[in-house]
Amino acid sequence: KTESKVEFSFDIASSQFLSEEQKHYIILKLKNKIDNEGFLHMSESGDRSQYANKEQLVKKAIKLMASVSLIPKKRVPTKVSKSSKRKRVDDKKRVGEVKQTRNKRIDY
């Protein structure tokens, strides 16, 4: 067995390339990977080579920071189109007519 584990620590609070909003969002999203001092901790030990583990860890850290630092846009609700409203009303009328024809009583 080889000693090839690589550990990564990143101080989010003192980072200069992240905005305050991004820092807050990252802290919310990665609570389980951040310790009490505000350091993000990651480790990699999948490969037998320490250099390969370091490369994998750097890629993983960059991918994680890129995916978490993007703040999602708020969804803008759209209106229901006139044609879909018309289609829904027409379908309801057709179903209502079918039910009305079932209930016709014939007097003798």
Summarize the model shown.
With 108 residues, this protein is mainly α. Helix content is 47%, strand content 11%.
Key terms:
two-stranded antiparallel ribbon, 108 residues, elongated, mainly alpha
Question: What would you say this structure looks like, in words?
Answer:
With 108 residues, this protein is mainly alpha-helical. It is 47% helix and 11% strand. It has three helices and two strands. Strands 1-2 form a two-stranded antiparallel sheet. The longest helix is centred in the C-terminal third of the chain and has 21 residues, at 82-102. The radius of gyration is 30 Å and the shape is elongated. The model has no long low-confidence stretch (mean pLDDT 86).
Shape: elongated
Strand/helix succession: EHEHH
First-last Cα distance: 97 Å
Kindly report the average pLDDT value: 86
Strand % is 5-15%
For the secondary structure, the number of strands is 2
Stretches where pLDDT falls below 50 for ≥5 residues? none
From the alpha carbons, calculate the radius of gyration and give it in angstroms: 30 Å
Biggest sheet record? 2 strands, antiparallel
Helix content: 40-55%
